[in-house]
Write a structure and sequence with these properties.
Elements lengths: L4 H8 L12 E6 L6 E9 L2 E11 L1 H14 L4 H5 L3 H7 L8 H23 L8 H11 L15 E3 L3
Antiparallel strand pairs: 1-2, 2-3, 3-4
Helix pairs in contact: 1-2, 2-4, 2-5, 4-5, 5-6
Bound molecules: FE2/S2 (inorganic) cluster.
Length: about 160
């Protein structure tokens, strides 16, 4: 499987791994296809995402997309952050193999859930979130029929900051 230089770089040196102890929003997601899990933390100041960190127990593509997603959302308003799709994250990484696109959904969904958590805490009303399982299913349909969706290099089953 061919990965871009950027994917390999973010996998080898993921940005923003860890947790924010006084986070304003936390998003937990699991990928029902492979069982990988992710937690994302956000800190919000003046309506913008001042900081974002993540912990992922997942494959290299999931780690690279989480790393890029946290970089992309910093400084963005919540609306701007919600418009960052998994495809945009994958493009910023120079693309992902089709069979690994479902991994990028994890970062998008963890971010949306963290924003949802923040809104519930501050306004009592969250987002109208699509179920993660539905999204993964949509993306799984993008995967060429018959191709196996599995944890493969880089990293196979890797851990970035999971405790
Ligand atoms: Fe599980 Fe990539 S997120 S294989």
């Amino acid at each position: 499987m061919q990965y871009s230089t950027k994917v390999m770089e973010h996998f080898a040196n993921p940005r923003n791994v860890g947790e924010i102890p006084d986070a304003d929003g936390i998003g937990d997601v699991g990928n029902p296809i492979c069982g990988d899990i992710m937690r994302m933390y956000i800190k919000v100041e003046d309506g913008r995402i001042a900081d974002a960190k993540f912990k992922t127990f997942g494959c290299g593509a999931a780690i690279a997309t989480s790393s890029m997603a946290t970089e992309l959302v910093k400084g963005k308003t919540l609306d701007e952050a919600l418009r960052i799709t998994n495809k945009a994250v994958a493009e910023a990484l120079g693309g992902l193999p089709p069979v690994k696109m479902h991994c990028s959904v994890l970062a998008e969904e963890a971010l949306h859930k963290a924003i949802d958590d923040y809104l519930k805490r501050t306004t009592g009303k969250g987002l109208d979130l699509k179920e993660h399982a539905e999204l993964v299913e949509e993306h799984a349909h993008d995967v060429e029929h018959g191709q196996e969706v599995a944890c493969e290099a880089p990293g196979g089953k890797d851990e970035a900051g999971a405790s």
